[in-house]
TrEMBL record:
The lineage of its organism: Eukaryota, Viridiplantae, Streptophyta, Embryophyta, Tracheophyta. Residues 162-224 form the K Homology domain. Pfam families: KH_1 (PF00013). Keywords: RNA-binding. CDD domains: KH-I. GO terms for molecular function: RNA binding. This is K Homology domain-containing protein. The keyword RNA-binding applies. It comes from Lactuca saligna (Willowleaf lettuce). Gene3D superfamilies: K Homology domain, type 1.
Length: 231
């Protein structure tokens, strides 16, 4: 069995933004953003809110009254990507907030903490939210090849499945498709995380896969195709 990936072509800036995110409405998250961070618990908790304008809520109301459109986007993001847009002492995210004027919230709960994910909450006018989103993506995409990168921003609620694979096959996957499985993730549109198999032998690895259901199924097919190969 052979696994064929699409030929990598140059991607325009606009297409990079589109390919780096998957949007989907989600009503589980709290409606209010402008509130103090709370103690971390099983419930959704704001870990950090970037908003320096004490009159932000009033200004948004005035902007809407003047014809501007209010927007709010909430995404799931892996912590390993989020740190690239935060910077030391939150300096990068502070600059993104100031440049975009969007209110930016970082949220977590028990489930996201378990898998090293967070929620990214953007609130403002349509233009402010779009600017914040693009500036965040710019920081993260700069760490990848211009033609090969995973989905950075996922819907808040994603499908999750697992696979157990022989430890020696992880080396084969990594050697063919590169570290962090970037090409596999780009092809499938899912996130792939390999770790220890709790309760299993040292010869096995547990693969966690996240994303829209069809993307997760495709990622599992790609992984299964690779581990069935003989090297």
């Amino acid at each position: 069995m052979f696994v064929f990936f699409k030929k990598m072509e140059p991607i325009s800036v606009g297409d990079r933004y589109a390919k780096a995110k998957i949007e989907e409405p989600n009503l589980r998250l709290p409606k209010a953003l402008l509130k103090p961070p709370t103690e971390l618990s099983d419930d959704l908790s704001y870990l950090k809110i970037f908003e320096e304008n004490t009159r932000k809520a009033q200004q948004l109301a005035e902007a809407v009254a003047s014809g501007a459109k209010l927007d709010r986007k909430v995404y799931r993001i892996r912590n390993k990507e989020l740190v690239k847009a935060i910077g030391e002492e939150y300096e990068i995210m502070k600059l993104i907030h100031r440049a975009s004027k969007a209110t930016i919230g970082l949220i977590a709960d028990a489930e996201t903490n378990l898998y090293s994910h967070s929620y990214l909450d953007l609130l403002g006018t349509v233009e402010e939210v779009q600017t914040a989103e693009e500036l965040i993506l710019d920081e993260i995409l700069a760490t990848y090849s211009s033609v090969s990168f995973p989905v950075i921003l996922m819907p808040p609620t994603v499908y999750h499945d697992q696979m157990i694979i022989p430890a020696q096959k992880v080396v084969h996957i990594d050697g063919i498709y590169g570290s962090s499985y970037v090409r596999m993730e780009m092809e499938s549109g899912a996130w792939i995380k390999v770790g220890k198999n709790p309760g299993g032998s040292g010869g096995e690895k547990l693969v966690n896969i996240f994303g829209p259901r069809e993307n997760v199924i495709k990622a599992m097919w790609l992984i299964q195709s690779v581990i069935c190969e003989e090297y």
